[in-house]
Write a structure and sequence with these properties.
The strands form 6 sheets. This protein has an 8-stranded mixed beta sheet, with helices on both faces. It is of the alpha+beta class. A hairpin with a 3-residue loop joins strand 21 and strand 22. The chain has 24 helices and 22 strands. Helix 5 packs antiparallel against helix 6. Its EC number is 2.3.1.21.
Length: about 775
């Protein structure tokens, strides 16, 4: 036990003269180093907090202003127009200071006030500039003079070397769209899905809502937008994620894969050691705010709010609603291996454990032959089943004794690590290898991931790895940012020895990992088994297919002068129509991070323009020129909708918030009820790639990520996540349910492939004629 190992450092003997306390010099040294490290960490956080608080100015600019004011005072010029004299007479301790001291102090106070006013003015101007979004609606490759001026002003006011949270106070609030605009866009979005009679009926219901009670709801929503930082995000987190009582495994959590072609080492413990150390480096930068904020065009800042809860965070189950518990600076992680839980300390002598030390700890766990305790092996399945039984079991069986201590150890850990006893990854000779890899990351065995942790790192016995992420605290670009940093650090900075071990010396004096202890009664074991049964039923029903599209990628699509995202979305519409013979309501996730605390908005990809194009593709009476013209019209429409969603003019988040207001006010709205009950039978999302540009994939083409995916949203629909990897590869992660006779993920993947090729053929024919 670690506690026993550390206790030997403190010895005492009782003598006639009293107690003789003997302290180990080595322990005192570690205590001293830990204290110094802790104070250094506080000092760095304080410094970075000050830098962020005064951004886009700097502390040195305060000194410049003070010197300038003092210089004018000595030149007998009063730039304050009498304010310095008024401050001098108002000083509460003026009788204890000389006249000269009073004057200097008053000038410093005036200079500080002037400096702070200047900071607020800069922030106000920057916020006003960032509220202008005309640049995003301009054609790709073309930039007007006004946009160039605008970008120059934003760049000028953005300062130099911003920290992660430097722009937070300058980001605009998400605007509330008008009722008329939202209703108009909604009706336009459902027009291709309804016949004439259904559409007329929907128009009547929507117009009735627009007259009453929509204005009442809108007033309350605008009031919230003035008061709250973001009028959507808190309700979105609570009602979409935390109040859901269904299992979060498959239904909410998502996964991210490792490199597609490369495994840096086949030693499981070594890979885990490097990756965990890289994560600790990232966490240190994150906690200090030293990461560079993400900026569109390298200039326009994105909100960094979601990064705050990446580590030391757990979703805690409740009877009616869950809540997200976020702590600071946790110094341990919990490892799960073959049904046992282990606690691993991440610090030694005030520093992070080195990769070689972490490898040693993880190898000790792999070599441990002890058996799981009763009820321990499937305990994590509580987080995979329905939320209410888990919440009740937590209250009844985990409130005291070893169960409470062990559960707290898990919930307060930096993150959760599974040392998996399976091998996964891409095998070109096994067509199912990626499908099995995706299913393993999404749900595993239903009892070997702690689905409530902000993320679970999974390292397989062949050295492959991946991440399963709980969705309520953040969206996929956030975990993707960390994953890119970790992957690059693992392979290109830390590296491995020729034998595949972590580099560095091995400190065998480290206390070994400690087993978590459990006393799980039979009644609780029955609940665990019930949760496992439900979770396994969900997992077994997931039909997954990962499709690697090598025929072409972003490079060729750009030559077509089309947005890669619009190209793929129209291919998905064509594939959907060929798969089912009909169109459906389609969800594409767009980000709203140009606004403070922004998360996502929905792009309704099925439009009148896209359906016209899709029908033309299978209409033999249409020429390729006509099809190409319809394609370009549909692509332009899609791009415009995506831009509207990014700039706060989407449809669905506004309608969602209006619905929440209606429920709070107790006013029933048939229109809102119908809108929010419509199923998304095709749910899509693009996984961002190369946010940090740490790996040159032109130079290292094998070091490309495979992206990630999520489970099906509708029982009879598809979930499709795609990632545009470099210039010549696109990966599609397709999910559906075996229980639906209407869906088949492999078939849909083939339809996507053919749709992509058919659209490319339009441009090939056009180029030949030219």
């Amino acid at each position: 036990m670690a506690e026993a190992h550390q206790a030997v450092a403190f010895q005492f003997t009782v003598t006639p003269d009293g107690i003789d306390l003997q302290l180990s010099r080595e322990v005192l040294k570690h205590i001293y180093i830990s204290g110094v490290t802790s104070w250094k960490k506080r000092a760095i956080r304080f410094k970075n907090g000050v830098l962020t608080g005064v951004y886009p100015a700097s502390p040195s600019s305060w000194l410049i202003v003070v010197i300038a004011i003092m210089s004018t005072m000595y030149a007998r010029i009063d730039p304050s127009m009498g304010m310095i004299d008024r401050i001098k007479t108002s000083l509460p301790v003026s009788e204890f200071m000389t006249v000269q001291t009073q004057m200097v102090l008053s000038a410093i106070l005036f200079a500080t006030g002037l400096w702070l006013s200047f900071i607020f003015l800069l922030r106000y101007i920057l916020k006003a500039l960032l509220s202008c979004h005309g640049w995003i609606f301009e054609s790709h490759g073309k930039m007007s003079f006004s946009t160039k001026v605008w970008l120059s002003l934003v760049k000028l006011l953005s300062g130099r070397r911003p920290l992660l949270y430097s722009f937070q106070a300058s980001l605009p609030h998400l605007p509330v769209p008008s009722i008329d605009d939202t209703i108009s866009r909604y009706l336009e979005s459902v027009r291709p899905l309804l016949d004439d009679d259904q559409y007329k009926q929907m128009e009547i219901v929507a117009n009735d809502f627009k007259k009453d009670p929509a204005p009442k709801f809108q007033k309350h929503l605008k009031l919230k937008s003035w008061w709250a930082t973001n009028y959507v995000s808190d309700w979105w987190e609570e009602y979409i994620y935390l109040r859901g009582r269904d299992p979060i495994m498959v239904n909410s959590n998502f996964y991210t894969m490792d490199f597609l072609y490369v495994i840096p080492t086949h030693r499981q413990a070594a890979r885990a050691g490097n990756v965990v150390h890289a994560m600790l480096q990232y966490r240190r930068k994150l906690e200090r705010g030293e990461l560079t904020p993400l900026r569109a065009l390298g200039i326009v800042p994105m909100c960094s709010f979601q990064y705050e809860r990446m580590f030391n965070t757990t979703r805690i189950p409740g009877i009616e609603t869950d809540f997200v518990q976020h702590l600071k600076d946790r110094k341990h992680l919990v490892v799960y291996h073959r049904g046992r839980f282990f606690k691993v300390w991440l610090y030694y002598g005030g520093r992070h454990l080195w990769p070689s030390e972490l490898e040693l700890q993880f190898q000790r766990i792999l070599d441990d032959k002890s058996e799981p305790q009763p009820g321990e092996i499937k305990l994590p399945s509580l987080t995979a089943g329905n939320r209410v039984p888990w919440a009740r079991a937590r209250l009844k069986y985990f409130r005291e004794g070893v169960n409470r201590a062990s559960l707290e150890t898990i919930e307060t850990a930096a993150f959760f690590l599974t040392l998996d006893d399976e091998a996964h990854g891409y095998d070109p000779e096994n067509l199912k290898s990626l499908d099995l890899y995706a299913k393993s990351l999404l749900h595993g065995k239903c009892y070997d991931r702690w689905f409530d942790k902000s993320f679970t790192l999974i390292v397989y016995k062949n050295g492959k790895m991946g991440v399963n992420t709980e969705h309520s605290w953040a969206d996929s670009p956030i975990i993707g940012h960390m994953w890119e940093y970790v992957s690059a650090t693992d392979c290109f900075h830390l590296g491995y020895t020729e034998e595949g071990h972590c580099k560095g010396d091995i400190n065998k004096s480290l206390a070994p990992p400690t087993r978590l202890q459990w006393d799980i009664p039979k009644a609780c074991q029955e609940i665990i088994e019930g949760s496992y049964t439900i979770a396994k039923g969900i997992a077994d029903d997931v039909d997954f297919h990962d499709c690697l599209f090598h025929e072409f990628g972003k490079g060729l699509i750009k030559k077509c002068r089309t947005s890669p995202d619009a190209f793929i979305q129209l291919a998905l519409q064509l594939a959907q129509y060929r798969d089912k013979g009909e169109f459906c309501l389609t969800y594409e996730s767009s980000m709203t991070r140009m606004f403070r605390e922004g998360r996502t908005e929905t792009v309704r990809s099925c439009t009148c323009e896209s359906t016209a194009f899709v029908k033309a593709m299978d209409d033999e009476s249409k020429t390729n020129e006509q099809r190409l013209a319809l394609f370009k019209e549909a692509a332009e429409k899609h791009q415009n909708m995506y831009r509207l969603a990014m700039t706060g003019a989407g449809i669905d988040r506004h309608l969602f918030c209006l619905y929440i207001v209606s429920k709070v006010m107790g006013i029933d709205s048939p229109f809102l009820k119908q809108v929010l009950s419509e199923p998304w039978r095709l749910s899509t999302s693009q996984t961002p790639q190369q946010q940090l540009n740490l790996i040159d994939i032109q130079k290292f083409p094998k070091y490309v990520g495979a992206g990630g995916g999520f489970g099906p949203v509708a029982d009879d629909g598809y979930g499709v996540s795609y990632i545009i990897v470099g210039e010549n590869l696109i990966t599609f992660h397709i999910s559906s349910k075996f229980s639906s006779p209407e869906t088949d993920s492999f078939r849909f993947g083939q339809n996507i492939r053919q749709a992509m090729l058919d659209i490319r053929a339009l441009f090939n024919l056009k180029e030949k004629k030219m």
